[in-house]
Amino acid sequence: MVVLQWRFQWRGLYGRIKQYITWKISQVVLTFYTLTYNTHTDKNYIIDCLLEPIFWFVDNFAGNLGKVFVFCVTVLTTAVVVIAYWVGLPYWWQKNQYITIFLVVFGNWLLLNIVFHYYMGISTPPGYPPHGSMISEAASICKKCISPKPPRTHHCSVCDRCILAMDHHCPWLNNCVGYFNVRYFYLYMAYMVAGVAFVIIAGLDLGYQVLWVNDTGGLTQENDPDLIGHPVRMNQSGVLVPVQLIAEYDSENSPREHDLPIPIITEAQRITAHPWKRKAVVFMAVTCLSVLFALGALVVMHGKNISRGETSVEAHINSSLRKQDKNQFRNPYNFGKKKNWKLFLGLTQGRTFLRHVLFPSRHPPSGNGLTWHTIHNAIEDWP
């Protein structure tokens, strides 16, 4: 009789299964690479392919969305100004009339600069290279325009043309930010940040009284208007009840005349009791704080770029160059912070900070945006 014995080796089973699955996965990966092989394929190419739908959306809809953004900025700015006059002005006028006059003058100065620079940022073309003319200092050829590009010029996919000293395309301006309107763009942001900070500081006490103290002074929509200015008593439930019957008579059995003090209703109490004014204060607080943090961060970021003498596009390019060669790379358009800011603000040819920065000014920048001074060929007394 023959006896057959089967022995199953459990010890190597897990290793063989793992090896088989790994081999199958490697076959699938190899097949995928074989079918999709391209010598030009790399990580950046894959990222560009994944971002292509976003680029298509920007190219086709950014121009129309820009008009919506401009409308939103106009409506929000108008709403803040209207609420400041509707709610804030009576509040400060009751507190101190002299301070109110100062706040009105200072606030309107900020508003004038905000409106002026925003309008100029929208209406001023950023600057374009001339077509059909010879550019003596062309840096390269634009692959999309098939035309020479001056130094610091870049192609905007939204505007579909090259922009002199392009910084970025701003949907809130519905315009590119370039050589001829970058000053308006930055000063608009700076004055807007100053404006919302001014509104927050001026409305700090009002917001505390309305949102924190929440004292209506007995003014509500539900109570009897005859209750205001009359004596009241409090029942056991804590509710104010008007004293309508006064059981006091004189010698002739006629009701006595009472000269009771009328409590003063402050403007803060009126605002707190008014449902729409209270909502307006909340709207102002949320809007101004949001704009302060959002635009404040942009002002700081662009201020650093201006101090280094570079645009936002150049800041991205130069950061990569600095990583490659930290010791030898130097921005050829960086003349030092003081000179960079003078060039950016156009404070040349006798222009002053008081007249041409603190007040609206339409002075153009120095130069034409086609040729540039650099640290290698700059004149000592320039600008």
Task: Describe it.
The protein is built from 10 helices and 8 strands. The protein is mostly helical. A hairpin with a 6-residue loop joins strand 1 (140-141) and strand 2 (148-149). It is flat, with a radius of gyration of 35 Å. The termini are far apart.
Helices and strands, with pairings:
Elements: H1 13-35, H2 43-95, H3 97-123, E1 140-141, E2 148-149, E3 154-156, E4 161-163, E5 168-170, E6 175-177, H4 182-202, H5 204-213, E7 232-234, E8 240-242, H6 267-273, H7 275-307, H8 312-324, H9 337-345, H10 353-356
Antiparallel strand pairs: 1-2, 3-4, 5-6, 7-8
Enumerate the spans where pLDDT stays under 50 for 5 or more consecutive residues: 224-230, 232-236
Largest sheet: 2 strands, antiparallel
* Average predicted confidence as pLDDT: 82
Order of helices and strands: HHHEEEEEEHHEEHHHHH
Give short descriptive properties of this protein.
383 residues; mainly alpha; two-stranded antiparallel ribbon; 10 helices; 8 strands; PFA4/ZDH16/20/ERF2-like; protein-cysteine S-palmitoyltransferase activity; transmembrane helix; transferase
